[in-house]
Amino acid sequence: MEKIRIVVVEDNRLLREGIVAMLNEHVDFDVVDSFGDTEKITLKIQEKKAHVLLLDIGLRNQNSLRIVKTVKKDLPDVKVIAMDLVPMQEDIYEFVQAGVSGFIVKEATIANFLKTVRSVAEGTKVLPSFLTESLFSQIVTQAISRAKVPALVEESIRMTKRERQVIIAIADGLANKEIAQKLNLSTYTVKSHVHNILEKLAIRSRIQIANYAHTNKDFAEVIDSVSLLGE
Q1: Based on C-alpha coordinates, what's the Rg of the chain?
Q2: What is the secondary structure of the chain as a DSSP string?
Q3: Looking at the whole model, is its pTM more than 0.85?
Q4: What domains appear along the chain, each with residue ranges and CATH number?
Q5: Which of the ends of the chain has fewer CB neighbours closer than 10 A, N or C?
Q6: At residue 91, does pLDDT exceed 70?
Q7: What is the C-alpha to C-alpha distance for residues 221 and 212, in angstroms, rounded to an integer?
């Protein structure tokens, strides 16, 4: 099994060393380098043949967005994961556009941290749910209004398998109680899924979900292109 070769850029030495130690405890990871600055970063990544760059986007006195753009321009196959405490909405949008494949909030659990690195290394785009939702008002609505689904939407929307099942059931005309019975869920859980779907697709009602699923080609393309999570 080929290990996932990782470069870590974090200017907080204690945090950097902790991340490196945590990753190196797992047999599928190999942290090939770590440092606190970005001098000659593309050269370092290339020399170490890294697959993934873990980059703190809050680096002091350094432009992390420019770093992402440089890395993706010179080394397009390298996957970039941005780390931050709580990224601003504008930052999320710009970093996704620049080529970031995933975000890790520094309050994330170790399990989620590791899962994100593995998923991104495999080619999946990973955005925590609250970050994903902050994108929809800007890009999903734009996608539908433009009558096309740009690559950014295809790469950014994340829908669980269960949410997709609920969408199909709504399009078939089922009420929440019927959906709950069909999927062996509680009615409360179905309502929660419907709420999440409305947020993610930037629409207002379940009727719109059904109408788009039946009549809107762009909506169908969005649903077909989403990356499916577990539940």
Answers
A1: 19
A2: ---EEEEEE-S-HHHHHHHHHHHHTSTTEEEEEEESS-TTHHHHHHHHT-SEEEEETT-TTS-HHHHHHHHHHH-TTSEEEEEESS--HHHHHHHHHHT--EEEETT--HHHHHHHHHHHHTT--B--HHHHHHHHHHHHHHHHHTTS--HHHHHH-EEEHHHHHHHHHHHTT--HHHHHHHHT--HHHHHHHHHHHHHHTT-S-HHHHHHHHHH-HHHHHHHHHPEEE--
A3: no
A4: 4-126 (3.40.50.2300), 131-229 (3.40.50.2300)
A5: N
A6: no
A7: 11
Whose CA is closest to 103, among 121, 119, 126?
126
Cα–Cα distance measured from residue 131 to residue 96, given in angstroms and rounded to the nearest whole number:
11
Q: Is the pLDDT of residue 86 over 80?
A: no
Nearest Cα to 102, choosing from 54, 169, 34, 153? 54
- Strands 79-84 and 102-105: what pairing? parallel
Using 50, 70 and 90 to split pLDDT, how confident is the model at 162? confident
Cα–Cα distance for residue pair 90/102, rounded to 1 Å? 15
Q: Dihedral of the CA atoms 146, 151, 156, 158 (nearest 10)? A: 80
Identify which of 88, 89, 90, 97 has the alpha carbon closest to the alpha carbon of residue 80: 97
C-alpha 166/C-alpha 61 separation (Å) is 47
C-alpha 231 chain-centroid distance: 16
Taking residues 143-154, report their average pLDDT: 42
Range with the largest mean pLDDT of 10-24, 102-116, 209-223: 10-24
